[in-house]
Amino acid sequence: MGQFINLSAADGFSFPAYVAEPATGKARGAVVVLQEIFGVNSHIRAVADGYAADGYLAVAPATFHRVKQGVELGYTADDMGAGIALKSAVEALPAPGVMADIEAAVAYASRAGKVGVVGYCWGGLLAWRTACLVKGVSAAAPYYGGGVTTPAEAARKPLCPVMAHFGEKDHWIPIDTVQAFAQAQPGTQVHAYAADHGFNCDQRGSWDAPAAKLARERTLAFFAQHVG
């Protein structure tokens, strides 16, 4: 089990982050876990705990904090609507916006060594942007990042190795755009699963256990290679 701490961005903004540490021994590196549109909720905390169990210092920053504090949503239609509105509010912030908070999380995580970034849903988009914009990241693994496959995002150039996971049945991210993204980013490992959006989350109806297991195994191997 981890705990929340406060971190400070370069502009002085203070925000919470959930931090989970390995139970035994020195961390092999660090993983920054970027939330879905539902906040640093029980699922995201469980994901962070899982990476800590695999030997990493896990840090999950509250990326909604600049627009609303203490967000912890579930997965109902009302929660979805609230999360989409909050995401839009964060995306509308003047640059660098929430990227400053992610930079601070990466800097904090680096005390454990090399840093990997994993993100889900909106966090997948933020993980992709982090790979392209934030120095000090050794690897990134975005999961079904909404917007990643748009031409503007696909034109970015990552600064570190990237492994991207998508669902073939994801109506938010059409598979033809995933294929176009893979062509535009030949250096990025792109995996598509016979699954829907949110397939990694066991609290969602779209959870797909085999896809989640395979994607996590691939991500862990990827981080073992590039992070430690």
User: Biggest sheet, strands in spatial order?
Assistant: 1-2-4-3-5-6
Low-pLDDT regions = none
Rg, nearest Å: 16 Å
Kindly report the CATH topology.
Answer: Rossmann fold
Mind describing the biggest β-sheet? 6 strands, mixed
Per CATH, the superfamily is Alpha/Beta hydrolase fold, catalytic domain
For the residues shown, what is the average pLDDT? 97
**Shape estimate:** globular
The structural class is alpha/beta
Cα end-to-end separation? 22 Å
List the helices and strands and how they pair.
Elements: E1 3-8, E2 14-20, E3 30-34, H1 42-53, E4 57-61, H2 77-91, H3 99-109, E5 115-120, H4 122-133, E6 139-143, H5 151-154, E7 163-167, H6 175-184, E8 189-193, H7 209-226
Parallel strand pairs: 3-4, 3-5, 5-6, 7-8
Antiparallel strand pairs: 1-2, 2-4
Description of the molecule:
- The protein has 228 residues and is an alpha/beta fold.
- The protein is built from 7 helices and 8 strands, in the order E-E-E-H-E-H-H-E-H-E-H-E-H-E-H.
- It has one domain: Rossmann fold, CATH 3.40.50.
- The chain has a 6-stranded mixed β-sheet, with helices on both faces. The chain has a two-stranded parallel sheet with strand order 7-8.
- Strand 7, helix 6 and strand 8 form a beta-alpha-beta unit.
- It is globular and about 40 Å long.
Task: Supply database-style keywords.
8 strands; two-stranded parallel ribbon; six-stranded mixed beta sheet; single chain; 228 residues; globular; 7 helices; Rossmann fold; alpha/beta
Describe this structure in a few short sentences.
The protein has helices spanning 42-53, 77-91, 99-109, 122-133, 151-154, 175-184, 209-226; strands at residues 3-8, 14-20, 30-34, 57-61, 115-120, 139-143, 163-167, 189-193.
